[in-house]
Amino acid sequence: MALLETTRVRKWFGDTHAVDDVDFVVNQGELLGLIGSNGAGKTTLVNLISGLLRPDAGRIVFDGADVTRQSVHERIREGIARSFQLVNLFDQMTVQDNVALTIFAREGKTRRMTALAERDRAVLDEAGEVLQRFGLESKARMLAGGLAQGERKLLDVAVAYALRPKLLFLDEPTSGVSTREKAPIMDIVTSIVRTGGITAVVIEHDMDVVFTYSDRIVAMHEGTILADGTPEEIRRNERVTTTLIGTTEAG
Amino acid sequence: MSQALLASGRLLAGWRLAVGIAIALFLVLVPRLLPPFQTLQLSYGLIFAIAALGFNLLLGYTGLLSFGHSAFFGVGAYTAALLVKYMGLSSMEAFVLAGALASAVTAALFGAVCVRYTRIFFSILMLALSQVIWSLAFKLFWVTGGTDGLRVPTPTLLGGSVALGAGEDKLVFLTHRYYYYVLALFLVCVGAMWVIVNSPFGKALQAIRDNETRAEFVGVQVRKYRWIALVVSGTFTGLAGTLWVPLNGLTTPDILYWPFSGKIVFFVVLGGFRTFLGPVLGAVVFNYLETYAIGFTVYWQMVLGVVLVLLVLTMPAGLVGTLAPLFARRRRIA
Ligand SMILES: Nc1ncnc2c1ncn2[C@@H]1O[C@H](COP(=O)(O)OP(=O)(O)O)[C@@H](O)[C@H]1O
Ligand SMILES: [Mg+2]
Predict the structure, then answer these.
(1) How far is A147 from chain B (nearest CA, A)?
(2) Of residues B201, B219, B334, nearest to A113 (C-beta)
(3) pTM for this structure?
(4) What are the Cα distances from residue B224, in Å, to A159, A174, A215, A225?
(5) Residue-wise pLDDT tens digits, A178-230
(6) Mutate to test the pocket of ligand 1, among A11, A16, A45 (most ligand atoms within 8 A of CB)
(7) CB A189 within 8 Å of CB A173
């Protein structure tokens, strides 16, 4: 069953056809790997679906509702959350507050200005649990800006996860970290997504990583979808091997 | 090791409590300890501190630099003056309520125009809007008294139960009963602002300050929250204006003019906008600096300018930001 479906969705930047009439489907419960070399249009597609960008044309249907014209805020309410390729955190706030704020926002509690945030046990406990799941509990009191890169990537995912989304987009959760750190991060992220029953789309450069963790893979190239199938099918797909596998090593 | 940390933490908390109690005690005893002129200066300082607290909800916590806060201070002051002129009121509580309301409405209108913008665009728009209010006060002289301003006689306090006695020296009233009135409201404002910046709402503002895009993507409606922050901020600063006017006895368009907005910016930069109490200390210290600089030399504006440039260059974190680490390990607002 399709949880998300885009129909001929398009975004051009001048002559660059970043996303060119793309039909993209995410099924309920799957962990989808979205691959493609640098500039293929992966991030732009996520920007369109999450509401950061408005499409030039096309339709986006999520969970049965047309969300094409909805604001970011409304899409979050519907259950779409995302992390960012370049880490996007609240650097002057503590690690705990980064997650707690997200929970406050989800619960509609950010309007409250007459109660101390740190007195809300339910929210703090949940923030603590989330941090524990991501292995960040020992950093709870540090400022987010002071974390190491790998921890920042994890916290970026944790913040999106704390929204309890139905559909979670993770834009290169291991970019910018050393090869050694990639597998541990992906292990944490994928196990959380699977145990939480969250449908997830993971954008990833590293082919080994993608083939290991994905149920299904969609390959993009120059704004269009090049191939779509199980990891086995993608591995054997000649168009993918000739266009992508060669080029991604460099990226 | 961790026990040592815990012990030092307790020591720190105890130390802070002791300092807090000492300061509170000093503030209560000021009218007995200091000559009336000094008490008056401190009253001005505390009032400016309320304005600075309001201002810093925007700068320190929301990341918006307003060059137009004179408008709220002025609206607070003129509201009291107009209540005297047109309704013959003299109750300070009426002034405070009406002043807070009028400045909240002004801030709400300003916000409707400004919150779409950030950085210098926000600053300049706030400046422009505040100058509209200034020119109104200037031009509508039959209402506002123009450059002569409006007189505000000594008000009655606490529902009329505390008033200036017949033949009593106004200075005695202002440096005792009115001083305590200001002190009480100052403490209420500090407490209220402390709760606000540490509330879920306050966290949302800090999130907007740190990363507007991500704040939007965790579901914080950025513009709406900026707007609310501006209304709260303007209300605090407006309340300060209302408290200021009985001390001064007169309100003129000067307090609506842009240099007064600059002064509020200076309070906060001087004290340090990254700390909760920085703006409070900055306002009190600035008021003394200005008072003594005026007495000391006719070039006081230049002296003040030089002092501020030196301070900003040598203490970019402000007085509190520079001095606080000597007492505590954590200095940034979290
Ligand atoms: N805001 C933008 N303005 C102009 N061009 C853009 C913008 N965002 C992306 N692009 C271009 O669109 C193409 C797709 O980019 P992107 O979606 O980031 O690719 P990917 O995430 O697959 O690496 C690239 O050529 C990129 O330069
Ligand atoms: Mg990308």
Answers:
(1) 15
(2) B201
(3) 0.89
(4) 22, 34, 40, 38
(5) 888 888 888 888 888 888 889 999 998 778 888 888 999 999 999 999 989 99
(6) A16
(7) yes
Amino acid at site B200: P
Within chain A, all domains assigned CATH 3.40.50.300 are found at 1-79+165-251
Asked whether residue B171 is assigned to any structural domain, the reply reads yes
Residue ranges in chain B whose pLDDT is less than 50: 1, 329-334
Minimum-distance CB partner of B199 among A76, A94, A113: A113
For chain A, helix (H) and strand (E) counts, in that order, are 10, 10
Is there a contact between A103 and B200 (Cβ–Cβ < 8 Å)? no
Number of CB atoms found within 10 A of residue B135's CB: 13
**Per-residue model confidence (pLDDT) at position A245:** 64
Residue B63 belongs to what domain range?
33-257
For residue A45, which atom of ligand 1 is closest to its CA? Answer: 17
Spatial separation of the C-alpha atoms in residues A158 and B166, rounded to whole Å = 68
Nearest CA owner, ligand 1 atom 25:
A39
Asked if A97 and B216 come within 8 Å (Cβ–Cβ), the reply is: no
What is B179-190 written as a DSSP string?
HHHHHHHHHHHH
- Residue B85 forms part of a structural domain: yes
* Least confident span in A120-134, A231-245, B34-48, B118-132: A231-245
Q: Is residue A251 a contact partner of residue A43, using CB atoms and an 8 Å limit?
A: no
The residues, any chain, with a CB within 8 Å of residue A134's CB and separated by 6 or more, are A154, A155, A157, A158, A161, A188, A192
Chain A contact set for B321 (CB, 8 A)? none
Check CB contact of A72 with chain B, cutoff 8 Å. Answer: yes
Level-2 CATH architecture, domain A1-79+165-251: 3-Layer(aba) Sandwich (3.40)
Å from CA of A251 to ligand 1 middle: 14
ipTM: 0.90
pLDDT at residue A250, rounded to an integer: 40
* pLDDT tens per residue across span B86-102: 888 889 999 999 999 99
Hey, what long-range contacts does A174-179 have (CB within 8 A, 24 or more apart)? A174/A204, A174/A206, A174/A209, A175/A85, A175/A205, A176/A87, A176/A149, A177/A149, A177/A150, A177/A153, A178/A150
A26, amino acid identity = V
Contact between B217 and A82 using a beta-carbon 8 Å cutoff: yes
Within 8 A by CB and 6+ apart from A45, the residues are A6, A9, A19, A22, A24, A34, A220
Q: Which residues line ligand 1 (CB under 6 A)?
A: A 13, 16, 18, 36, 38-44
| CA torsion angle B255 B81 B59 B308 (round to 10) | 30
* Alpha carbons A127 and A159: distance in angstroms, whole number: 10
